[in-house]
From TrEMBL:
Transmembrane segments: none annotated. Residues 449-582 form the GGDEF domain. Residues 591-845 form the EAL domain. It holds the Pfam family EAL. This is EAL domain-containing protein. Residues 52-105, 168-209 form the PAS domain. Gene3D superfamilies: 3.30.70.270, EAL domain, PAS domain. It comes from the Bacteria. Residues 124-174, 368-419 form the PAC domain. It comes from Pseudoxanthomonas helianthi.
Length: 853
């Protein structure tokens, strides 16, 4: 028997039994006749039933679409040939299985809506995706109707293949655009391919914004039903993507970060299969906005509380106000507000008018988004963001609705960031930007414009920083800031302006002398030294004071002039204060002009050298010369060396100028030798900047080689500052220079550091006694004592000694008495031009002149 042969009917066995009984001789004849007729009738019925079944099967299999007979619970009772062909499975593999075996994407309880429709006497129609034996899918439209199958309440379902349905697709698209349900289509990577009009409206797509950008996950916070944040793996689309199965109605909240707006949706995600595919190629999400349905629900209130968002509605015509529980918590009124006046009472006075104006604008069709300040009933201040718009419902009076969000924490964070942005992180004082803003604000207000600025710079801060490291330097700045703050108190604004510089701005309206008194108090605060473990440092301050508006009516000008006064104070000896004056400004202008011209002086050939003879104090013979620089500026005229040398040191131009002096002096020595005057030793001053630069010895060697001079023709004079440079490179430089035969001398000995411990370690030849001391002898006891001490040091260390500034015979005699052999000064000659110096040499007899010094 094959699948198409009907099974034997029960009546066949019964007819055979009746025929057998009719042949039983024991029974009466009448009974046997009755049984024989019954058997004949049963045989006829069986033949009729068999014919009916054959007709049923023929008709059933003749239908070109798949036809299934289903039981009440969805079990397949029968399937026609078209169904077997469509599903590509044998009949016995399908019959007896539930219909979801062929339609795996059907939702749970899928038979309930079918029977609900059929019981009303209607035909149930649905579009689903059927699956073949190889897993490929094809879309069908299924029509279901009531059917009595062998006495059982059943369903006959006819499935029409929709794979070729061009016109139907167009109608489907039109329907998608017309229905008020959001529809999103994504590919299986999650990229958004399509959204209907309802979806775009609910998403809040802005003009010019793409769907993909609007739906970026970073723009949204998904929430579970309980209001907690939903993990990525729980998103309905992600679950559908990973399982390939339908994800039925899921309730979730979508909180938009930018708009701070929470929307609740109910979403169903359905995987969609292309004809012949075994895996879905896209997902269809259908969702509805159910926010209004959840306004008063517990879950909605909990989610609003978590997001600190409450809802409100105002009926302006009837002056009725509705607030959600979270909105009430945010505003914290004494009692639940009944009307607008009660809500306004929660706001600060100035904010009430803003809110009223916003409500009025909204009634004209506009929306509003405000940040307002208020005070809760318990006295606690708050910040809220209120968003509102006109409700579109048909009412007799304006009806407004919106949200209120607690942004107090955000505002406090903003204030903290603002304070941090205006505060120096090390000292806790105001920073540069903050004090500039404060000065700008005060100077713009005539009532506050009479202020003064104190520019404070720590003296010898670098000493601590270099000796103990940056951590000690930072600690010094913190402690110095504390001393300044204690000295100023509440009488001024204090800022760290940068590095070891501080700024104090104070009001000078009532007391013009207050800035100077503050300066004295600050200097007094630095009277005690700073201790770092066993080390103790005397750190003082130099202060410049400038008054507005006479010294500047803009922050930068006022600070610049205070800075200028501070540098003048530092130049005068430090640990003091100096008020700005027009004379300081003039000198500053002159300095800038000098520095500007100084940079071009070498290139413009504006420098020249004069040579002051160094003579034997006993016999007056010239033994050497010191090269002295002079500057004849094309723009500024003749400038004194003491005026421009310090500028050159500050700007660094001294290095280039010093190199020019070195080369020019050696060139001149070569010229004198070529004139037959012998090799005159010339002393050249070397700046500390030149000394710490790279390869001083190599540069000296190169110049000597250029002019074919021995090292003994050159004497280099260094300041006492090099004595504290106890670095290996210092000793190496001196050793290299001495190896060249160059004479090495410490200039103006006794004026500076006088580091005797280092003096005995350096390979030098001699000392120069400063004019500062020789000018007081023989009458000034202090100068006499210093000259005697220096002379003794030179004699004990075996060093040569040259006295500068010898201007009188009494000085010469005194120095000779001390044993000083060589001197220079106006007593013998000022600085001479090269020709005059050559003439002086020629005037001396050959026996008097020393060719090598």
């Amino acid at each position: 028997m094959n699948a198409n042969t009907p099974p034997p009917l029960p009546s066949d066995g019964l007819a055979a039994a009746l025929e057998a009984a009719g042949r039983d001789p024991v029974l009466p004849a009448e009974t046997r006749d009755l049984l024989a007729r019954a058997a004949i009738e049963l045989r006829a019925l069986a033949i009729d039933a068999d014919a009916a079944r054959s007709r049923y099967r023929a008709l059933f299999d003749a239908v070109p679409d798949p036809v299934s007979i289903l039981s009440e619970d969805g079990t397949v009772l029968d399937l026609n040939k078209a169904g077997i062909a469509a599903y590509r499975r044998p009949r016995e593999e399908i019959v007896g299985r539930n219909i979801d075996f062929l339609n795996p994407d059907l939702p749970r309880d899928h038979m309930a809506p079918v029977w609900e429709t059929l019981n009303r006497g209607e035909t149930f129609v649905i579009e689903v995706t059927n699956m073949r034996a190889d897993g490929s899918r094809f879309p069908v439209e299924v029509h279901s109707a009531n059917f009595d199958f062998e006495g059982r309440k059943s369903i006959v379902a006819v499935a029409r293949d929709l794979s070729q349905r061009g016109e139907a697709e167009t109608r489907y698209r039109e329907l998608m655009e017309l229905i008020d349900v959001g529809i999103l289509i994504q590919d299986m990577s999650g990229s958004f391919q399509y959204a209907n009009s309802a979806a775009l409206r609910m998403i809040g797509l802005r003009s010019g914004e793409s769907l993909e950008d609007a739906m970026r996950l970073e723009n949204w916070i998904p929430l579970r039903e309980d209001g907690s944040q939903m993990p990525y793996d729980e998103l309905p689309s992600v679950r559908c993507m990973r399982s390939g199965r339908i994800v039925e109605s899921s309730l979730l909240g979508m909180y938009h970060r930018g708009r701070r707006q929470l929307t609740w949706i109910s979403a169903t995600v359905v995987p969609q299969y292309a004809p012949g595919a075994s895996k879905p190629h896209q997902m269809l999400t259908l969702f509805s906005d159910v926010t209004h349905l959840k306004r008063n629900s517990t879950l909605f209130d909990r989610a609003q509380a978590l997001a600190h968002i409450g809802g409100w509605e105002i009926d302006l015509g009837r002056d009725r106000v509705f607030l959600t529980d979270e909105a009430l918590r945010i505003l914290g009124p004494h009692e639940k507000p009944e009307g607008l006046v009660d809500v306004l009472a929660c706001l600060r006075e100035g904010e009430r008018a803003r809110f009223r104006e916003a409500l009025q604008r909204a009634t004209d069709g506009g929306g509003f988004d405000l940040e307002l300040q208020g005070m809760r009933a318990n006295g606690e201040p708050f910040w809220v963001r209120v968003i509102g718009e006109l409700e579109t419902r048909q009412t007799a009076s304006p009806y407004l609705t919106g949200t209120v969000q607690d942004i107090t924490t955000d505002k406090r964070d903003e204030e903290s960031l603002r304070v941090l942005a205006r505060t120096d992180p090390l000292t806790g004082l105001l920073n540069r930007d903050a004090v500039l803003d404060a000065l700008e604000e005060r100077l713009a207000d005539p009532a506050q414009a009479q202020i003064a600025v104190l520019y404070i710079d720590l003296d010898r801060f670098k000493t601590v920083n270099d000796a103990l490291g940056h951590n000690a330097g930072d600690e010094l700045l913190v402690r110095a800031a504390r001393r300044i703050a204690n000295a100023v108190g509440t009488e001024g604004l204090i800022a760290r302006f940068g590095g070891d510089e501080f700024l104090v701005a104070c009001d000078a309206t009532g007391d013009p002398q207050q800035p100077e008194r503050l300066a004295e108090r600050i200097l007094g605060a630095f009277a005690d030294s700073f201790r770092f473990g066993k080390d103790e440092f005397a750190i003082t301050a130099s202060i410049g004071v400038a008054h507005a508006p006479q010294d500047g009516d803009r922050p930068q000008a006022l600070i610049q002039n205070a800075d200028l006064a501070m540098y003048d104070s530092k130049r005068r000896g430090r640990n003091g204060w100096q008020a700005f004056t027009p004379e300081l400004a003039r000198r500053q202008q002159d300095r800038l002009q000098i520095e500007s011209q100084l940079r071009r002086a070498v290139d413009n050939d504006e420098f020249h050298l004069v040579y002051q003879p160094q003579v034997d104090l006993r016999f007056g013979r010239v033994v050497a010369a010191e090269a002295l620089i002079r500057w004849q500026s094309h723009q500024l005229g003749e400038l004194r060396p003491d005026l421009f040398i310090s500028h050159a040191e500050t700007t660094g131009d001294i290095v280039r100028i010093g190199q020019w002096v070195l080369r020019e002096a050696c060139r001149q020595v070569r010229a004198w030798q070529d004139q037959g005057l012998g090799i005159v030793r010339v002393a050249v001053n070397v700046s500390y900047r030149q000394f710490v630069g790279d390869e001083l010895a190599e540069r000296v060697r190169a110049v000597l080689d250029e002019f074919s001079l021995p090292g003994s023709a050159l004497e280099l004079e260094f300041t006492e500052r090099v004595l504290i440079e106890d670095a290996p490179s210092t000793l190496r430089t001196f050793a290299d220079l001495r190896a060249l035969g160059v004479v090495l001398t410490i200039d103006d000995f006794g004026e500076g550091y006088s580091a005797l411990n280092y003096l005995r370690r350096l390979p030098i030849h001699g000392l120069k006694l400063s004019q500062l001391f020789t000018e007081g002898v023989p009458n000034n006891r202090s100068d006499v004592a210093v000259c005697q001490a220096v002379s003794g040091i030179a004699r004990s260390l075996g060093l040569g000694l040259v006295a500068e500034g010898v201007e009188s015979e009494a000085q010469r005699q005194f120095l000779l008495g001390l044993g000083v052999p060589i001197g220079q000064g106006f007593l013998f000659a000022p600085g001479l031009s090269p020709d005059d110096f050559a003439r002086r040499l020629r005037e001396e007899t050959p026996l008097d002149r020393l060719s090598n010094g």
